[in-house]
Write a structure and sequence with these properties.
By secondary structure, this protein is an all-alpha fold. Helices cover 51% and strands 0% of the residues.
Length: 65
Amino acid sequence: MNQYINTGIKEVLKEYPNLAPLLAEYEINCYKCNGNCLFKDIFEEHNLSMKQEMELNTKIHKILP
């Protein structure tokens, strides 16, 4: 997963489209956005609680290598 930290979220979603519904569960709708955020920005920009961030991180690790 660390290899994607500084990659644009749109690029990551193209490569791993099954990430979009997972992010949507946390009201992170990057697939709809026209922005150019980096993958790491999903945690900084969406004000997740520590618990949510840990849960999401665990779930992302199951999808991304």
